[in-house]
Amino acid sequence: MSEMVNPTLKRIRRLILFFIIMLVLSGFTAFGVESQLNWFIQTFPSGASILNGWLQKVQTAIHQTNQAYPFLSYGYDWLAFAHIVIAIAFYGPYKDPQRNIWIIEWAMIACVAIIPLALIAGPVRDIPFYWQCIDCSFGILGIIPLWICRKWIKQLN
To answer: How many Cα atoms are found within 13 Å in the side-chain-facing hemisphere of 128?
Structure first.
């Protein structure tokens, strides 16, 4: 006979699973970035003009870079792989949230660290401010489920 699982533990696991799925999906967007960008621009050709202009500039840069230096896209492969590996790390809190709460807290720190990275590296790399804000939103949106999860883990005590 299977033991009853605490409802709070079930919620924690669902939230961690959601976070894992989002990390993996985010990582997959780095694979084949040129073809995905081409698809997006063709599918939504009249998006917000400022965003569309930026995406077309990025599309041109990626296409020209891949034509001349395809090995640079290997960095995107590693970026995707890093997302997947980070997602795997959340198996610890999924299995034993109380013992592995430090992974949730580490991820919260990483979410906060996205903001200075985007706001410092963005201008250095000539990234438009509105795109830096989009990048910052990943940290802001990412920390929300992590904070909730941490709160629920603390309630297990």
So the answer is: 11
pLDDT in tens, 78-118: 999 999 999 999 999 999 999 999 999 999 999 999 999 99
Six token digits for residue 126: 């000539």
Task: Calculate ∠ Cα 12-15-144, nearest 5°.
Answer: 110
Cα 117 from Cα 108, distance rounded (Å)? 15
Report helix, strand and coil shares of the chain as percent, to nearest 5.
Answer: 80, 0, 20
Alpha-carbon torsion angle 54, 57, 36, 121, nearest 10: -70
